[in-house]
Amino acid sequence: MSEIASSLIVDFGATAPETTHSKPPADRLIDGHPEQVARNYFSDSTGRFFAGVWESTPGKWRVRYSENEFCYITRGRVRIEHESGRGWTFSAGASFVIPAGFSGVWEVLEPTAKLYVIYEPA
């Protein structure tokens, strides 16, 4: 990528994203059959900073974060529970950060989409 191309604005509406389809690993799945699509619109040259759109159908699975993630829910509703038992429910319009080291459960209560910005510490 040229220096000029790498310094241009990334317009999510005009950029062709890198798209991946996935499901939570069977050993982390708690309930349902969630199917997920991630559209990564930006990755920096270090491979530690990402931004894009994630979508999922309902389901529940265990998570362990090595990255810091900013989330903005654009559609749907999720419940996130820390391993301590504390939980949060977020709907469209909500924004939050999940810090590196978080361990718990993600539950998609209704089809959900979110904007994400991820930073993976060294």
Automatic annotation (TrEMBL):
Gene3D superfamilies according to UniProt: Jelly Rolls
Stretches assigned to the (S)-ureidoglycine aminohydrolase cupin domain: 46-116
Classification via Pfam families: Cupin_3
InterPro entries: RmlC-like_jellyroll, RmlC_Cupin_sf, UGlyAH_Cupin_dom
Alphabetical list of CDD domains matching this protein: cupin_TM1112-like
Top-level taxon of the source organism: Bacteria
Name the record gives this protein: Transcriptional regulator
Lineage start: Bacteria, Pseudomonadati, Pseudomonadota, Gammaproteobacteria, Steroidobacterales
